[in-house]
């Protein structure tokens, strides 16, 4: 490695760099608005389902007594409350993805501007 190459031989073959494979679909696509709209509908349905499940999971009971105020008790059903929490959690995840889809749909760039960044 101590030898320095100062001249190229006339018969030397210069290898061309390999061509990059064709790029896949771009992240920036306007059709992502449709995906975000579908997720918004799913979020609304999940929130409605969560409220319905929560109301089914909390049951208030009244036991009447003669001459006294009724004894009021609250019973919690874990399966309904857990389903409500799961539905809200899924709605939050979909909301985050809907925001991401909208940002990717809005940030579409013309091909000329996208090529100049490279």
Explain how this protein is built.
The protein has 118 residues and is α+β, with helices and mostly antiparallel strands. The protein has 3 helices and 2 strands; from the N terminus they run H-E-E-H-H. It has a two-stranded antiparallel ribbon. Strand 1 and strand 2 form a beta hairpin. Helix 1 runs antiparallel to helix 2. The two termini are 35 Å apart. 8% of the residues are buried. The model has no long low-confidence stretch (mean pLDDT 83). Keywords: Membrane, Transmembrane, Transmembrane helix.
Instruction: Summarize the helix and strand pattern as letters.
Output: HEEHH
Strand proportion: 5-15%
Total of helices: 3
Assembly classification: single chain
Largest beta sheet: strand ordering: 1-2
**Main sheet?**
2 strands, antiparallel
Q: What's the total number of strands? A: 2
Mean pLDDT comes to 83
Task: Give the radius of gyration.
Answer: 32 Å
The percentage helix is 40-55%
- Structural class by secondary-structure content: alpha+beta
Distance between the termini: 35 Å
Low-confidence runs of at least 5 consecutive residues: none
């Amino acid at each position: 490695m101590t030898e320095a190459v100062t001249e190229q031989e006339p018969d030397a073959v210069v290898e061309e760099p390999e061509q990059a494979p064709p790029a896949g679909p771009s992240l920036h696509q306007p059709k992502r608005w449709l995906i975000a709209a579908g997720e918004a509908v799913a979020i609304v349905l999940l929130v409605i389902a969560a409220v319905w499940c929560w109301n089914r999971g909390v049951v208030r009971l009244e036991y009447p007594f003669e001459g006294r105020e009724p004894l009021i008790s609250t019973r919690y059903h874990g399966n309904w409350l857990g389903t409500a929490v799961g539905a809200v959690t899924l709605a939050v995840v979909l909301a985050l993805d809907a925001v991401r889809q909208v940002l990717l749909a809005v940030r579409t760039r013309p091909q000329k501007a996208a090529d100049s960044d490279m």
